[in-house]
Amino acid sequence: MGSASAATVCWAFILGLLFTAIPYGGWILLSIGVLASLLFSRFGKSALPGNHWAIAGVIALLATVYFQLRIPQPPAYDISRLLSPTEDSLEVLVEGEVTSLPRLTRNQKAQFWLQAQGIAPIGDGKVVTGKVYVTVPPDQATTLHPGQRVSVSGSLYLPKPAVNPHGFDFKEFLQKEGSFTGLRGDRVELRQDVSGWGWWQIQQRIVQAQQKSLGTPEGALVSAMVLGGRAVDLPYPVKDAFVRVGLAHALAASGFQTSLILGVVLALTRRFSERVQCGIGTLALASFVGLAGLQPAVLRAALMGFGGLVALGLNRKVKPLGSMLLTATILLIVNPLWIWDLGFQLSFLATLGLLVTVPPLSKRLDWMPSAIAPLVAVPIAAYLWTLPLQLGAFGVLSPYSIPANLITTPFISLISLGGMASALVAIVWIDGGSGLAWLLKYPTQALIAIVNGFNQLPGNAYAIGTISVITVLILYGLLGLSSFHRWWQRRWWMAFAASLVLLLLPLGAGATLTSVTILATNREPAMVVRDRGRVLVMGGSDSQTAQFTLLPYLQKNGINQIDWAIALDSQAATNWNTVAQTVPVKYLLQPPFVPVNFQTKQNKAHSQPVLAPLTLNQPVKVGSTQIQLLSVDPAIAQFTIRDQTWLWLDRLKTEQAKGVLATIQLPRAQVLWWAGSSIHPKIVEVIKPEIAIVSSHKVEPETIRYLQQQGIRFSITGQDGAIQWTPSEGIITPGDAVDPE
Description:
Number of domains: 5
CATH class of the largest domain: Alpha Beta
CATH superfamily of the largest domain: Ribonuclease Z/Hydroxyacylglutathione hydrolase-like
Radius of gyration: 29 Å
């Protein structure tokens, strides 16, 4: 098989996996291949023989079938089968083997993977299998490590898909890991302690040595730059700061660390033969993979590095693009699901950018010193080739990414080399490794200070909103033309201008959009109103809801400022501190007797919001939206949005509902929105809503039956997901409510 034929097979396989995102994608590619084969065989010539196109189509179809076959499915005795889709949770005692080190989550819970081996719901033992995502209080996981047999008591649950637009799909995440259940544990008991050897022991030794002399967060940062962020509990504020300025790659074990390892190994073994160098380099790469873990980006870097070592041993030249294509194919044969892994995609795209864009870009920078031009070209190329994918996934631009990379590269290189030296010494002598790590204290502090400095600058992370898959593909098409096609290479500015237009289109659409979104939340209800470029938000300001629901929604919808925030009680008003640290709040509407004390902002780019009074029964005009506070305790507010009246009701007990009916003149409203599991029928009779929206996970059967009897369309955010309204389409519900009977 020639190189062209081999490349065709690889590309066909990869395209087949990519087309799994499209219904009947494999058959589409097969049809294209057969049609191209017939056309080129009869009417013209191509770079490939005619029958090769048909073969490529068949390979693409087989790739889609292979992908479907490799999607994990729960076996017959999987622990997930103990729960039905209608059950929220089940109190159980699960026995099994710990398969990972505990890691701290953003909820400050310790998380680890457990291979279930038995279960006892209320004493009734049963043999089960399955990989379980376990979270427990941190004090219950301090001594856990892989190989231990433990029992965990807690609440077993089925993961849910994304419930908000562009939200995190927890169900899909677990499925990719081969898991179908989660366990909210409250107590862990050790059944059998196994002290067998594992890579985790070396990881722990390295982290312990570097943490000992450097402290937090410097020690964790150095360990993350050596072992990768997944192997270390790096504090989330530090991690988020690096991500916001485009330095996430510094915390991911991949090509940079691999290049350093091979560079040091080849430099130290230059007096030996090529085969010896190849052997020692392979051993070093294998050790690095063992320590960093079997992550797609790590395996990509290691395989490409191994290819270079083999070429060195055989005294042959390496074709970088061919090596990268072969590496991608091998990894996707091992696990085709990695085609949709963001780390896998970013790793290959960044490498592709370095291979095809750095050389021509360096030539255009020939006015710079020859040693400086490549250093400038590398971050620009990596940024350009990963930007479309990042916008498709997160919708955020990091405008300071290139200068941040240029300034921090010397620090990252020094800390990575020093961290690796410290790690090697710590393996055999922990105090010696700790002493070497101490030498990195000031460079690490300087790196953190630089990153924090960039995060203080205005617009350090500008949200434009997530872009569509089609837009991502068009952007990569323009990048590819500018990199490979001579005509486009000379007219790169045209591709740049077209890309800008594609990215600015969503911002223009957002400036004319009017919509209301009731987010699906676990705690405080939240509503986001977009009114032709202006944004109003009520609720969702408590720390958990803001961090996991409200702020991700704003970011992925291209919202960089909240024009009006509404706080109906003192706790809600104070909670807006958390939101305002990330997204500026212009005005905070609140009852005049609710005291608010805004803390000094760490982010100097954000000014404090202006406090505006929200007086009882006095309408307040917010753009074209009108707000009227009818009651503070309980909170009741009326919203008029484009001639559509919405009424918000806080949780009401029966006695409170009677008091409201006696003292407050409730208006009629097209949409009734309330929190809680039930509502007094008399309130519904007075309001006479066309649609009822419940911000809750459960609703009393009596309430559901009453709404159905009255012919009122209703939706429960905890079951149906976020609810949206637009003037043209009205209320858009993800699904119909289910009658509990």
